[in-house]
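Async update (no meeting this week)

Hi team, since we skipped the sync, here's where things stand on the single-chain job. The sequence we agreed to prioritize is pasted below, unchanged from the tracker. I ran it this morning and attached the output directly underneath so nobody has to dig for it. Comments welcome in thread, and please keep replies under the output.
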Amino acid sequence: MPPDDDDAESPLDWDALSKDPEELADALGAERINLSRFEFDLNLVREFPLELVRTYNVLPLRAENDTVTVALAYFSKIDIIDEIGYQLGKEIVVNIAERTQLSLYIARFFP
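Output:
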């Protein structure tokens, strides 16, 4: 039985949410991260697929067992998280970073 209109969740406006990292983090139930205060595991960064970094503007933060935590600043749909997980064969945990910080660190690690 389809839900009543009152019970249906409205779709998220990813473009609007991505302009405000705090709102995006709240919508996803994700943590925010200040990359300038984060100590990157350079081995993890080097092993992370360049194609994923370039395609999704994502950086790896931590890897534990079958889970990889990544920093993202923007994405147009939640399927991106699933796609990253599928390509890595891991569960993905998202932390939300400021877009300018993320771009800076991507350029630094992947010139």
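Quick observations from my side:
The two ends are 52 Å apart (CA to CA).
The longest strand covers residues 91-97.
Reply here if anything looks off.
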